[in-house]
Amino acid sequence: AAEIQSELTNVLVTEEQILAKLDEIAAQVAVDYEGKDLLLVGVLKGAVMVMADFSRALPVSAPMDWMAVSSYGAGTKSSGVVQIRKDLDTDLHDKHVLIVEDIIDSGLTLSWLLENFASRGAASIEVFALLRKPEAAKVVVDCKYVGFDIPNDFVVGYGLDYAENYRNLRDVAVLAPHVYS
Ligand code: PRP
Ligand code: MN
Ligand code: MG
């Protein structure tokens, strides 16, 4: 494992800030979905950390399922081509689906996913993204719950990777340009 500190320019969102925000959003989600058949859908692999902490911040039990898609591969730019690597196990019929994502960057992954889910008969489909980069949007995604709007820098940590590294950092940090240029 590489020495990490020299590869980051600054911490953008600390683990403490993330957990506080998750508590806030989880309380809101519990109210919004009271009496509804809520299904959490995490988008692998980036959403692993946020799903783990967000689901445990919920004051109610909610099943979770996972979809694995990838559009970035080993680069820093979205290819725009989204591939399903693992589909859901759950039938979405009559479910109130809340998609849990680590980040909305160009928006291509989520807009593709929302379109893919639209025909599966869900009662409702909403999105929770921990991070969003408004300046990077190529398509507008209707996202009901957003943790933090952040600048258009390449960020890693708390599930977010560069070429599969740095997902295990506790904070979200900006990757130093010398690492990928
Ligand atoms: C990343 C991130 C989001 C998506 C956001 O996933 O986790 O899912 O890109 O980018 P977009 O808004 O430009 O589509 P990635 O494709 O890198 O796969 P990963 O979750 O396995 O890292
Ligand atoms: Mn992802
Ligand atoms: Mg990635």
UniProtKB/TrEMBL annotation:
An annotated Gene Ontology molecular function: glycosyltransferase activity
Domain Phosphoribosyltransferase positions: 16-162
Record keywords: Cytoplasm, Glycosyltransferase, Magnesium, Metal-binding, Nucleotide-binding, Purine salvage, Transferase
Residues making up the signal peptide according to the UniProt record: none
Catalytic reaction equation(s): IMP + diphosphate = hypoxanthine + 5-phospho-alpha-D-ribose 1-diphosphate; GMP + diphosphate = guanine + 5-phospho-alpha-D-ribose 1-diphosphate
Enzyme class: transferase
Enzyme Commission code: 2.4.2.8
Coiled coil: none
Compartmental location: Cytoplasm
Entries under InterPro entries matching the protein: HGPRT (IPR050408), Hxn_phspho_trans (IPR005904), PRTase-like (IPR029057), PRTase_dom (IPR000836)
SUPFAM superfamilies xrefs: PRTase-like
Cofactors that this protein relies on: Mg(2+)
Pathway assigned in UniProt: Purine metabolism; GMP biosynthesis via salvage pathway; GMP from guanine: step 1/1; Purine metabolism; IMP biosynthesis via salvage pathway; IMP from hypoxanthine: step 1/1
Family of the protein in this entry: Belongs to the purine/pyrimidine phosphoribosyltransferase family.
Protein's UniProt name: Hypoxanthine phosphoribosyltransferase
Species for this entry: Microbacterium aoyamense
Gene name of this polypeptide: hpt
